[in-house]
Structures are given as C-alpha cells and as structure tokens.
Amino acid sequence: MALVLIPALGWANAAQPGLRMAGGMGGFTLLFPEDSASYQIIQMQEEQVSIQLYPGFAVVKGSYWMQNTTPDTLNMRTGYPVNAHFSTTRNSSELAEIYFDELYKLKVLINGEPVTFEKKAFEADDPNIHFYAHDQPPAWYIWTMAFPPGITLIEVYFIVNTNESTVSEGYNRENPNGFIYVLETGSSWKPPIGKGFVSVQLMDGLSVDKIKGVSPDSIFKYSTAPDFLFYQFSNLVPDHEDNLVITYGNKLPDFNFEQIIAQAETYFSRVDGFAYLSEDPNGELIVFPSPFDVSGGGNFMVGVIMFVALYGLPILGTLFLILFVLWFIRRRKNKKKG
Question: Is residue 229 a contact partner of residue 200, using CB atoms and an 8 Å limit?
C-alpha cells in the first residue's frame, strides 16, 4: 500500500516534512452511516497485528476479536481502507497527514471462513476520513457480515510495497523503506479497544539497527527469543497520535514487487507462524529516532542558492566598486610618481 505523510506546518508543499509513498494500511473499521445504530454495540475486544518487514515490502496479518454485547444478530457492511487520508502527530507542535493508496492480495476470513469482498469508493460520512485533495476519493474493500451475540473473529492478510517511500524535510530527500499502520480507525467501534498487540519481525537480513525511525518513538519493546519488536496496549481509544510509522533500510533499485505478490500464500504462511511465536513475549523498551528525520545537505544547498540569489549581485557590485576605487587610487599615485 502506498502512503504519503505530510506534516502540516504552514510551509509550501515542496518544503513540507513528511513520508511519501510508503507501504501502509488502516485498521479494520465500520464504514456506513446507516449502520451507525450498531457503532456503540460492537466492541473490538482484542486487536492483534503481526507485521513482517522485508527489504522493499511488508506482509501483514490483522486479527480482530469483535464482541456483540446484545442478544441479537447484527448485520452490517464493514471493511478495510485501500486509500484514505488520516492525521498523525510528528511531535507536540507538528501535525502530519497520511495518504495511502493500495494494498495487495487481500484475504479476509470470518471465524476461519473466506469472505467475498468488493472494492469501491468511500461513501460514508466519517469525520476521520477525507477525500484526496490531489488525486482520487478514498477506496475501500468492503463486505457485509453478521455479528451474532458473543465473539466473532475477523482475520485479514495482505502485502504492501514499502520500496517507493520518500522522506522529506524542507528541501531534503531520502528514500528509506516506509510502513504505516493506522490504528485510529479502530475508534469507530464501541470504545475502548479492550487490548492490543502489535508485533514487528525483521526479515531477510534486516536488523534493529536498520530501522531509521519510528513514531511514536518509545512504544516498542525488543524481544530476543525470538527476535522481534512488540507493542502492547489495553483499554485504548486510538487517535492520530497512536498511528504507527516505521522507516527502515534503503530503496532497492531493481525491486520486482510482482514476483513478491505472486508468492503471497507463502508469505501469509510465514506471518501466520510469526503471529503464533510472538505470543506472551518479554523484552526491553527501545527508543527510536523520528521517521521524519533526514540529513541536512539539501537545505544547505538551497540556502546557498537563496543567499546567492538575494545577495550575490549586491556583493559583486560592492566588490567591483572597492576594486575600482583601489585601482583608481593606485593609478593616481603612479601618475604623481611619474
């Protein structure tokens, strides 16, 4: 899935910091206003998200235990965002906007049974989701499902492309891999999310020192047996500050993403195994830099260019005048000597 993060700082677009075109996804959520009578009845009792980060892509399994607290079966349309516009916080003074536009090989199971879904433009009146300002309206994969009394398990698998990311700050640009999980979409269910577990495993030679930045920066613990990052929460009503952003590694110049998605079932089997292994971990808290940080070479060059543009001609004129005065004085002295 592609995404764009553009922190809103009041600068021109070309200078705004942010992460563009990273692989990402939003949480399982309600969609349609006509189903709003059920919004405060169905609760996400538990959310478990297992993420395997590879060079150039990520494989995701999301498991959601939904509880219907009434004696009646409730039918409604639900789904996963294909593209949308959300907000996240870079720090206490900077708000980031997130745009993402695709995920691949989506597979949905309800209580272990596959579900047929469709892709369509977003139509609900959800204040958390807006139309693209620059491209197309948000699209969703949606399906109609029944929530009988008690617990219903929804499992979702998909692959996202993380290789097309650009991190920008001012006029600086870098190209790490980028991933996002939009946790705030879970707030549309009956609050709070009872408990949650997000785990991240680094694959194919990636290691923790290859992670360039995470937001929020200090939510993950690091487990070494097995080797992965994890984040646990309870009784959470998520908002934009809870959205997860990870940048890692570097852009692969000859990346064949089509070859990856052709092996989707193999990757889904691997993430299934990881989801099982990552239960009940122990680990130490680890703090990461901001995923928006980039080197300052671009801003330096822009500064030089702007300085020359603003002050170059006056400085050259002043130098020319000084040289002319010195030449004139020297010429007069030479004449007097003659």
Answer: yes
What CATH number is given to the structural domain containing 46?
2.60.40.3680
Instruction: Say yes or no: 63 and 87 in one domain.
Output: yes
Same-domain pairing of 303 and 220: no
State CA 117 to chain mean position distance. Answer: 24
Q: Beta strand 177-182 with 23-26: parallel, antiparallel or unpaired? A: parallel
Partners of residue 46 on adjacent β-strands: 65, 195
**H or E segment at 25?**
strand 23-26
> Which residues does 102 contact at the CB level (< 8 Å), separation at least 6?
1, 2, 82, 83, 160, 161
Q: Measuring CA to CA, how many Å separate 31 from each of 58, 144, 159, 188, 252?
A: 25, 11, 22, 9, 36
Residue 245 shares a structural domain with residue 325: no
> Token pair of 57, please?
């892509």
| Per-residue pLDDT tens over the stretch 193-247 | 999 999 999 999 999 999 998 988 888 999 887 789 999 999 988 877 788 889 8
> How many whole angstroms separate alpha carbon 153 and alpha carbon 65?
5
pLDDT in tens, 3-53: 333 333 222 222 333 444 455 555 556 556 677 677 678 899 999 999 999
* Nearest C-alpha neighbor of 3 from the set 135, 180, 175, 127: 180
Give yes or no for a contact between 25 and 172, defined as CB atoms under 8 angstroms apart.
Answer: no
* Calpha distance 247→159 (Å, rounded): 17
125 beta partners = none
Question: pTM of the full predicted structure?
Answer: 0.76
Within this chain, do residues 316 and 275 fall inside the same structural domain, yes or no?
A: no
3-state class (DSSP) for residue 250: coil
Range of the domain at 267: 3-294
Give Cα 213 distance to the centre of its chain: 11
Band the pLDDT of 181: cuts 50, 70, 90: confident
